[in-house]
Amino acid sequence: MSMKGQTALVTGGSRGIGRAICLELARNGANVAINYAGSAAAAEAAAAACRALGVEAFPIQADVADPAACAAMVKEAAAKLGRLDILVCNAGITRDNLALLLKDEDFDAVLDTNLKGAFYCMKAAYRTMMKQKYGRIVAMSSVVGLRGNAGQANYAASKAGLIGMCKSLAKELAGRNVTVNLVAPGFIDTDMTAALPEAARTALLGTIPMARLGRPEDVAKAVAFFAGPDAGYITGQVLCVDGGMAV
Ligand code: NAP
Q1: CA proximity to 153, closest of 119, 161, 116
Q2: Which one of 5, 107, 138, 161 is most buried, counting C-beta atoms within 10 A?
Q3: What is the pTM for the complete model shown?
Q4: What pLDDT digit, counting tens, does each position of 98-116 carry?
């Protein structure tokens, strides 16, 4: 699949799944703007790895929970890249606790970053893609958004919310040749899951029919499919990349 000359903005591209997405898009020929919140060095390293694949790539700092920062980031990325074909809303955080103990600020932080952050970026890219009459938006949901998970009421709400939001935007933008899809990973080997206690990791592994964690690259392949030219007649869909967890 060739994305040669296409342009992409990936939020949370400095580490984990987002980094793998940037590299996969670059491998397919796309130029990439790599968003990060605080990891400047990691974002620059990801950009260097993309450039080594022969494309243009640069880091771009913005806290996606800040609407003004998202608007400025999308504007800057589109200006530097020349146009914006692909937006991947991948940035996400967890603040896990049982609902009984969950602090309001932890509920809000997760919704602000995972759900509202994606909305701010999509809203900022909306007009540009509409005018271009071309766009590929991909959001990072989670199996937890489909099935729920004890201790993750805030995270599950944010990931389920993304699905309803993206289906709505898919309907708004379909007539303009802009698709909006979601990937729902299961249990992927990144910093996010490395932070889980050993007992929780063992219990989670037991829920995966394939009996192994996923790799960031497994998720990146699915994102690249939705982001590419071959998925032009697919919109409003959720693709699980989870070793069978959600079956
Ligand atoms: P990760 O390793 O913790 O990386 C998170 C990325 O998001 C980093 O690049 C981080 O940037 C960025 N980020 C966090 N808050 C941000 C903010 N406010 N503004 C901009 N960027 C921000 O996470 P991951 O495991 O790769 O997860 C990536 C996405 O996949 C998330 O949406 C997550 O919910 C989803 N997901 C992950 C799994 C899994 O098992 N790992 C499963 C299902 C869904 P900095 O480096 O600057 O902090």
Answers
A1: 161
A2: 138
A3: 0.98
A4: 999 999 999 999 999 999 9
Instruction: Tell me if 220 sits within 8 A of 17, measured CB to CB.
Output: yes
> CB neighbours (10 Å) of residue 222?
20
Residue 134 annotated in active site: no
Query: What architecture is domain 7-241?
Result: 3-Layer(aba) Sandwich (3.40)
Contacts of 243 (CB under 8 A, 6+ apart): 186, 187, 208, 209, 210, 211, 212, 214
pLDDT at 100: 98
pLDDT digits (tens, 9 = 90+) for 160-215: 999 999 999 999 999 999 999 999 999 999 999 998 888 888 988 999 999 999 99
Asked if the model's pLDDT at residue 1 lies above 80, the reply is no
Q: Which atom of ligand 1 has the smallest separation from the CA of 63?
A: 19
| Ligand 1 atom index nearest CA of 188 | 40
> Average pLDDT, whole number, for the chain?
97
